[in-house]
Specification:
Blueprint lengths: L1 H9 L19 E4 L8 H15 L3 E3 L7 E18 L2 E19 L4 E7 L9 H19 L17 E5 L4 H10 L4 E4 L3 H9 L5 E4 L14 E16 L11 H9 L8 H6 L11 E5 L4 H13 L1 H6 L12 E3 L1 H10 L4 E6 H6 L3 E2 L2 E2 L5 E2 L3 H8 L26 E9 L5 H14 L17 H14 L1
Parallel strand pairs: 1-2, 1-3, 6-7, 6-8, 10-11, 10-12
Antiparallel strand pairs: 3-4, 4-5, 8-16, 9-12, 9-13, 9-16, 14-15
Helix pairs in contact: 1-14, 2-3, 13-14
Length: about 475
């Protein structure tokens, strides 16, 4: 049903011609596996991918790109996270733990990204990490091909001589937005200054549109600003930590996170942390708490989650882009938080998933309302938006924090673009509607390679209808 709805919305925006051609992942029959990186394990992962895809019988793997329907290319990284003893009574038998990721895109002969995905190690993999990552990608790719779904597409906007758009705001989607804007065919600069600063620049008419991880309430939007708020993608905020003496992974509960950021849990070997991490050797060391110092939508998401988890936190500290932190050291931007945690032993902070992955930081699974410890990834973030029954509109708050789905990562969120609807030059208005239409169709296929989950199809269809009304 939703496919017909999306197709109807595409008509009048852009012709959905590409979706009816071989420029769709379900129509792929031949594939070439390009490099998936230059680091440790990259060659092994490439060979494993070739082996698994050949074994499936669903695809013909070819050596040369010109003879393939698509080329699979990507990046990867694997790094050690510590050594674990196989015998608690002896250090003579140990095994090294590894973390890593594999990110790929399936690119057609014309250069269009038809599919993308990013995987991290499964929790209990019984094979090597290289095999585990490659097997996950092979399985996801085959699922996409067998699904037979024709996603709507929109061509990138034609280059407009002399036209340049300016945008600023959220850091959470910044890596994806920069990639999107480079691919869109429109000249756009994006300044990841944080949601609060981006909104202020929009109010001051310094930018053409803004990005925010915190949607504006209708009664909070200045009278002179007539805006439409467009959710563009799903992301996750993760607790990152630097515990050099911890062998193995850390598990965190909402109560532990509240206690750490409220200053009531001050040591890593606090009984409440030990209870959630049976058998872990946590140091008798002070917890070094790191938070954002600038006005941040990521902070809004983080403190909103803490407020949902604790009435005491909600009453004493609350949620927002700025709060009066009971403890900790502030850093500017996600880059600042990432760098400070990297360089501070026994520290903890919060950043977007992609920043943790790209900087090889440990990030902890968090217990969700179903009682399961869930680590952020594409599957668990997507699960947070399933069955949400959302119906976006101007000023409406959409939250998927603490989603009830048993597989959902609890600190998942939408991120928004704030688009003025009045006082825009016709050429810029046309460019922005074209950009948004491309982002919600073709652009969604680029999300997953950077660790962002595409929007649910029904939500994307509703957003296309809103954009159509802007024209």
């Amino acid at each position: 049903m939703w496919r017909a709805v999306v197709a109807a919305f595409c008509v009048g925006l852009f012709p959905c011609v590409q979706a009816q051609t071989a420029e769709a992942i379900h129509a792929v029959h031949t594939i070439q596996i390009d490099s998936v990186g230059n680091g440790p394990g990259a060659t092994a992962m490439r060979q494993r991918l070739i082996q698994r895809l050949k074994k499936s019988g669903s695809l013909e793997v070819v050596e040369k790109a010109p003879t393939a329907d698509v080329t699979l290319r990507g990046t990867s990284s694997i790094w050690p996270t510590g050594v674990v003893s196989l015998n608690p009574r002896s250090n003579s038998s140990t095994v090294t733990n590894y973390q890593g990721y594999l990110s790929v895109e399936a690119v057609s002969r014309s250069g269009e990204v038809l599919w993308s995905y990013l995987v991290t190690p499964t929790r209990f993999h019984t094979t090597s990490i290289t095999n585990d990552l490659a097997d996950q990608i092979a399985s996801r790719l085959l699922q996409a091909i067998h699904a037979g779904v024709v996603d709507p597409t929109s061509p990138a906007a034609e280059a407009m001589t002399g036209l340049h758009l300016r945008a600023a705001g959220a850091t959470l989607p910044a890596p994806l937005y920069r990639k999107w804007f480079e691919s869109s065919g429109i000249s756009i600069t994006y300044d990841a200054v944080g949601s609060e600063a981006g909104i202020q620049q929009l109010k001051d008419a310094k930018v053409d549109f803004a990005a925010s991880d915190m949607p504006l309430r209708e009664d909070a939007s200045p009278a002179q600003l007539h805006l439409v708020q467009i959710p563009t993608v799903l992301g996750g905020v993760v607790p990152i930590y630097n515990l050099p003496d911890l062998h193995g992974s850390l598990r965190l509960t909402p109560e532990i996170l509240v206690g750490i950021y409220a200053g009531t849990i001050r040591k890593w070997n606090d009984p409440r942390i030990l209870e959630a991490n049976h058998g872990a050797h946590l140091p008798n060391a002070d917890i070094r708490v790191v938070h954002r110092s600038d006005g941040s939508g990521t902070t809004f998401v983080w403190t909103s989650y803490l407020s949902l988890s604790s009435p005491e936190w909600k009453n004493a500290v609350g949620s927002g882009t700025h709060v009066s932190w009971p403890v900790g050291t502030g850093a500017t931007g996600s880059e600042g938080v990432t760098a400070l945690v990297q360089n501070t032993p026994n520290s903890i902070g919060y950043v977007e998933l992609i920043y943790a992955i790209q900087h090889q930081l440990n990030y902890a699974p968090v217990r969700n309302p179903a009682g399961r410890f869930i680590k952020a990834d594409l599957v668990s973030i997507t699960a947070a938006a399933m069955g949400a029954g959302i119906s976006p509109g101007q000023g409406q708050i959409l939250s998927i924090l603490n989603a009830s789905n048993k597989d959902a990562y609890p600190i998942s969120t939408f991120t928004w673009l704030l688009i003025p609807t009045q006082g825009i030059e016709p050429q810029k208005k046309d460019a922005m509607t074209r950009l948004l239409s491309w982002m919600l169709t073709t652009g969604q296929k680029q999300c997953a390679s950077l660790g962002y989950a595409p929007l649910p199809h029904d939500l994307a269809a509703q957003e296309l209808e809103i954009i159509r009304a802007l024209k």
